[in-house]
Amino acid sequence: MAIKLTAGYPSKIIFKFYDENGNLLTDLSNTSATLYSSLTGEAIEENLSLNYDSDNQYYYLVYIPSSDLSGTYYFVATGDDSEGIKRTSTVFVDILPETSNLLLVDFDKVTKFINDINIDYSVLPSLIFVATEWVQDITGKIVLPKTFEEEVKVFNKKVYLSKFPILQVNSITDKNGNEITNYSIYNSELGILKVDIRSAAEIRVKTETLLIVNYTAGYNPIPETIYTAIAMIVGYLYDRAKYMNFDRIRMLGIDGILSKDVLDRVKEILIPYIK
């Protein structure tokens, strides 16, 4: 079963090496590891250094996935034994996007529909992530806060952003880098900003009304209704998909794993948030 990692956050990857008789090897030299894509077999990162834990008798790597990685990968670690024979150890990992760092998500809330007294918490991040993606697709809203930057035009003193709800505006500049300060959030749920008419008139002459908006979209706190929708999906997925790797779940999609009846019930409670 694949180990769950999150892009941007360190994880300890443990490797154990054995000989043909199943004996644990603890005196390897020239150890290193390579990360490969499960989809293409392409080497993503090579010559990663391994450390040795003498107390627990294993080799390990502290690895921080880069933010552009997501999906299923595998590490192949190698080392030479005392006779010069190269030994290998393979570990599969599911790398979740950085936005799946679920510090804003309360596990007690998202596990309330799981009927298992011994919940395997290691599988929850991938299930929560795909459930959250599905809710975002259905509602057209960003759930977990994320920062975006867009080049937009001013229409009748208003700016229409593509991601919402707007949590905060970090900066607005024209194409020459001049900061625009006369604005307000007109409609957070629909992603609309209102720009002061004098600023807009000045911008129209200089930059053909083009603005660069850096903003954060998402909910904080997450509405209880959205929590419930995510929890319902996670509860159903837990029984059906907990042993699938992350790529497999994303390939099938929520609609390919759960029944229409289940999804219709989830959609019904999300009606107030569907744009």
Rg result: 24 Å
The strand count comes to 16
Oligomer: single chain
Largest sheet: 6 strands, antiparallel
What is the molecular shape?
globular
Structural class: alpha+beta
The second-level CATH architecture of the largest domain is: Sandwich
Number of self-contained structural domains: 3
Mean residue pLDDT: 86
Poorly predicted residue ranges: none
What sequence of helices (H) and strands (E) makes up the elements?
EEEEEEEEEEHHEEEEEHEHHHH
Strand content: 35-45%
Q: What helical percentage do the residues reach?
A: 25-40%
Report, as a whole number of angstroms, the end-to-end distance.
38 Å
Q: Can you identify the CATH class of the largest domain?
A: Mainly Beta
CATH fold node name of the largest domain: Immunoglobulin-like
Features:
single chain, 275 residues, alpha+beta, six-stranded antiparallel sheet, 7 helices
Please characterize this protein's 3D structure:
There is one protein chain. With 275 residues, the chain is an alpha+beta fold. The protein has 3 domains: 3-98, Immunoglobulin-like (Sandwich), CATH 2.60.40; 102-141 and 221-273; 146-217. Helix content is 25%, strand content 36%. The chain has 7 helices and 16 strands. A 6-stranded antiparallel β-sheet has the order 13-16-11-12-15-14. A 5-stranded mixed β-sheet has the order 1-10-9-5-6. Strand 7 and strand 8 form a beta hairpin. Helix 2 packs across helix 4 (224-241). The longest helix is centred in the C-terminal third of the chain and has 18 residues, at 224-241. The model has no long low-confidence stretch (mean pLDDT 86).
